[in-house]
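Run log // design_07
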């Protein structure tokens, strides 16, 4: 480890040297200890490595749809783990190009070295030794399959910084190209947003963003751009549609609003059109509506109506196609009864002889039906449950004038409509808005109205969730009696490291 007034270099045991940026003038810094790495040996040297030819085949055609030859990976990683990581997260597609990654060491370095760079710049480390320990602990958790950050980290982190440890300098390649990106600096009351050179300079590392939309055409169209940029860098979205006036309410001049479900159909189409993070996975959305919004019954049945169309095509049309194929055979070689039945079947009209694929990315679900990229949930307010308990009425109210009651109905009707749709289609889910806000830790700042698509992050709008996964099996040890014991101290240690990484996602990342 070397340092002078102009440059600080962190020398790693692998022979790499990380050129660190100037450190912000912060007091203190955090101390780090080893738990998963060891003083005697580098994490990479504690496991065996092997080169593999990775191929992913189309399950229907048998054709190769992804190939990466001679990829170096830890020998103990099974084929599925290697295939998924290679296909989704390794950078570059042309062997020999500057950005091409042919080893899992490259991606482990991208993640751990970048967090070390950011942590040093933000003053998270008390000393250079703490920075080195942090770096090796992160690498140990990755290579040993103890911890995995959320996908946007694997997608986006480190491409701008990798010159600092001797990888090709990609900054010129990506300056001024791709989507616009923004980074905010300053305190809460003096926050300024800057346009940055590249989406990779301050990469989007959060799993999902909780967004909001205003009740104007300008805001509705701007929100389409917001979601598109978020999806393009691999993240998901949570949105509550209840800020938009219902289809029952007037607009300026004459006529009535299209309603939030109509606009959401357009946003959802954009989500389906964008490969999240430039990869093969779909964008993810959580869409909510308050139980007192005038369009709530339409919202409850939105996806169920789409599923009814799918049932007609997949069950009735596809069955008709198969029956017609059988009938054509029986008409020639069947019994008299079979020939009679075949003539009846062949006389029935059939728009196309093609059957439809039920796969989520095929024509029906991937391109034709609406609202296929979102989880739908009803955000139920406390007065609804009170009305239900009392076998009483509840109401829907205009967004533009909450004093205007649009509809009065028994609370049981709404619950039954939800139950019927859930039985048929598995949606909508339920958010108990009253209980959520009872436990809201920041009531003085605002109310919670939405969540990320998986609903493990329930917080204020215009915030992001930064997720991690821990492999619980890796925290099992054997006790004195030979029985498995869960090592809670090891999990606590790992969680602290992961929280530092998550915090750095917010400090250093951007919104695109």
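design_07 sequence
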């Amino acid at each position: 480890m070397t340092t002078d007034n102009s440059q600080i270099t962190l020398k790693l045991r692998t022979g790499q040297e990380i050129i660190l940026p100037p450190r912000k003038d912060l007091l203190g810094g955090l101390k780090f200890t080893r738990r998963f790495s060891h003083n005697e040996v580098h994490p990479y040297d504690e496991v065996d490595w092997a080169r593999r030819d990775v191929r992913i085949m189309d399950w229907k055609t048998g054709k190769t749809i992804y190939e990466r030859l001679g990829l170096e990976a830890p020998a103990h990683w099974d084929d599925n783990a290697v295939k998924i990581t290679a296909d989704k997260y390794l950078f570059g597609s042309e062997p020999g190009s500057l950005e091409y990654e042919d080893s899992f060491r490259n991606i482990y370095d991208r993640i751990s070295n970048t967090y070390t760079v950011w942590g040093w710049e933000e003053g998270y480390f008390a000393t250079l030794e703490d920075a080195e320990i942090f770096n090796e602990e992160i690498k140990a958790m990755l290579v040993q399959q103890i911890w995995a950050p959320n996908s946007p980290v694997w997608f986006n982190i480190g491409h701008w910084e990798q010159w600092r440890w001797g990888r090709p300098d990609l900054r010129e390649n990506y300056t001024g190209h791709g989507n616009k990106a923004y980074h905010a600096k300053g305190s809460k009351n003096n926050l300024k947003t800057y346009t940055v050179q590249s989406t990779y300079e301050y990469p989007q590392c959060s799993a999902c963003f909780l967004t909001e939309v205003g009740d104007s055409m300008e805001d509705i169209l701007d929100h389409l751009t917001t979601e598109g940029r978020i999806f393009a860098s691999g993240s998901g979205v949570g949105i509550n549609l209840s800020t938009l006036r219902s289809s029952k309410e007037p607009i300026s001049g004459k006529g009535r609003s299209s309603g939030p479900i109509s606009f959401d159909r357009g946003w959802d189409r954009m989500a389906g059109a964008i490969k999240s993070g430039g990869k093969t996975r779909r964008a993810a959305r959580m869409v909510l509506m308050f139980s007192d919004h005038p369009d709530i019954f339409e919202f409850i049945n939105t996806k169920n109506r789409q599923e009814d169309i799918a049932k007609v095509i997949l069950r009735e049309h596809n069955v008709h196609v198969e029956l017609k194929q059988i009938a054509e055979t029986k008409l020639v070689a069947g019994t008299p009864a079979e020939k009679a039945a075949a003539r009846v079947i062949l006389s029935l009209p059939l728009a196309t002889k093609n059957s439809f694929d039920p796969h989520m990315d095929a024509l029906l679900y991937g391109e034709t039906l609406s609202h296929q990229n979102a989880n739908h949930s009803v955000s139920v307010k406390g007065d609804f449950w009170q009305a239900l308990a009392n076998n009483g009425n509840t109401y829907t109210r205009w967004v533009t004038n909450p004093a205007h009651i649009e509809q009065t109905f028994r609370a049981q009707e709404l619950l039954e409509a939800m139950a019927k749709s859930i039985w048929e289609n598995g949606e909508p889910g339920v958010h108990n808005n009253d209980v959520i806000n009872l436990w809201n830790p920041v009531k003085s700042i605002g109310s919670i109205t939405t969540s990320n698509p998986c609903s493990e992050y329930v917080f204020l709008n215009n915030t992001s969730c930064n997720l991690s996964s821990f492999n619980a099996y890796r925290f099992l040890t054997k006790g004195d009696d030979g029985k498995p014991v869960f090592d809670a101290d090891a999990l606590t240690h790992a969680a602290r490291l992961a929280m530092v990484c998550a915090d750095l996602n917010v400090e250093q990342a951007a919104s695109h």
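The chain has 14 helices and 21 strands.
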